[in-house]
Amino acid sequence: MRDSGERILCVAGGVEHADRRVHDFLKREARHDLQRSAEAYAAELGVRVKRLSIRDQSSRWGSCTSAGSLSFSWRLILAPPFVLDYLAAHEVAHLVEMNHSARFWRVCGKVCPSMERAKKWLDTCGNDLHRYGVED
């Protein structure tokens, strides 16, 4: 970290592996932050997250199965923290209500006061996150 507070990521190894190493680092950070948020929301709502996975999803930011498995796009780590937090709340809220009914939105909004702000950010800036990735 610089004196200014700016964070710096130093990537070890050959330049040919830099993209993959940065990608792996971002996925680990996403898992850590999303796991922490999802567990907090699950405790608040009295539900249990059985599994959390981080993927390279291009059509959705997250998903939830009725069995309690949550999946998220690794790109959420590139969004502001309130957006990542909202997506965790959104998917955990599906463990209470497996649809997008009025009840679902009440549950989600109750636990995540920044819901509307995050939805607006995703509508405005979310597609920009798909510019980032690793060429396979």
From TrEMBL:
CDD domains: M48_yhfN_like
Superkingdom as given in the UniProt entry: Bacteria
InterPro entries linked: UTP_pyrophosphatase-like (IPR053136), YgjP-like_metallopeptidase (IPR002725)
Domain YgjP-like metallopeptidase: 5-123
Protein name per Swiss-Prot or TrEMBL: YgjP-like metallopeptidase domain-containing protein
Organism: Bradyrhizobium diazoefficiens
